[in-house]
Amino acid sequence: MAEVHAVKSLDAIKLIGHLLEIRCSKQMSDIWCIGLNLALRISDLLSVKFSDIENDRLVLRESKTGKVANIVLNKKALEVIKRIRTEHPDHVYIFQSYRNRQSISKPPMPLSRRSVTKAFFMIGEEMKISLGTHSMRKTRGYHLYQNTKDIARVMKMLRHSSEGVTLRYIGITQDEIDKDFVDLEI
């Protein structure tokens, strides 16, 4: 599997959301939007239930690490989640699979990671960028770092335990760090 990257251009971030909506579905565009705003791994993002949200806060245990993610939902995430809830009041999952409609006896299931991966890959190929499901999390981390230059804050948001891992994860290269030293003269 090819390594995916953070999307560093704000225009590209908007274009990806737009292309996902027109080429795939509104649901894929919503996944991109919510994923950018929550910085969760795709498996955790797809498993979010409406019942996991209380008082504009999402609380869930991450499947990979077992750590608790306690995330206050920003205005954009809340708007999308409320719209989805209004459009699909009977859904259990925010990103519920529509295939379950075919079988009344089966319990609701979230959308599959595979379908999201396929949609993101297709848009990435169209835009000639390395785009995948981890791009949402990496993109949020990258832009938080660019806005704050506070790697500890980014680590905490991503629930990482090493600065080196976080810098590599969000795509901060040695060249960018060197540029910061050259650009900032005191």
From TrEMBL:
The keyword rRNA processing does not apply. Gene3D superfamilies: Intergrase catalytic core. Residues 5-182 form the Tyr recombinase domain. GO terms for molecular function: DNA binding. SUPFAM superfamilies: DNA breaking-rejoining enzymes. GO terms for biological process: DNA integration; DNA recombination. It comes from the Bacteria. Keywords: DNA integration, DNA recombination. This is Tyrosine-type recombinase/integrase.
